[in-house]
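quick one
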Amino acid sequence: MTPIALPPLTKDLSRVLIDADTIARRVNELALAIDRDYRESKENLILVGVLKGSFIFLADLSRKLNVKHSIDFISLSSYPDSSEITGNVRMIMDTRENLENKHVLIVEDILDSGFTLDYLSRNFEARNPASLKTVVLLDKPQRRKIPFKPDYIGFEIPDVWVVGYGLDYAEKYRTLPYIAQMNPVDC
Ligand code: IMP
Ligand code: MG
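structure w/ magnesium ion:
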């Protein structure tokens, strides 16, 4: 396969980990699986994207789904001083829709320590949804600090920082069409 040229500004990026065609094919497969599983959901399916990283994945996934669904978003943040140890997560922006009796599918860009999705799934379970599942585009199983099993996983990746297709490093590189590995940043 011809290597994909990186734009010149991206000297921080070491390689393309997942190219755009591979992402598109996998998103299609995920949509087929979700369509199959939610055939009976009677239009009560809601995709809840976790901002900001999931916005491109959610847009693509949503457009590949045949099953009727609505979309909503939440925004979360980790307490900066304690996230590595306790993973304290707080809600910055909640959903607009009431999740009670809805089939809720959380759409997340990447599962890392597991703290975000552990927090979110507990928070959403308390709202009595008809069902609650999670789809993550990327999973870094080696980084897990708290057990969490998503219902759908796009790709398992190694313990490296990745950007592109919605994912950022300090708000940069979100709009790359592929997922790239970053070079370690000097601190
Ligand atoms: P967790 O709570 O550690 O599972 O954190 C997941 C969140 O950390 C994701 O939603 C991302 O916002 C962020 N994150 C983790 N790894 C990466 C990465 O490699 N690139 C970009 N964001 C990441
Ligand atoms: Mg995220």
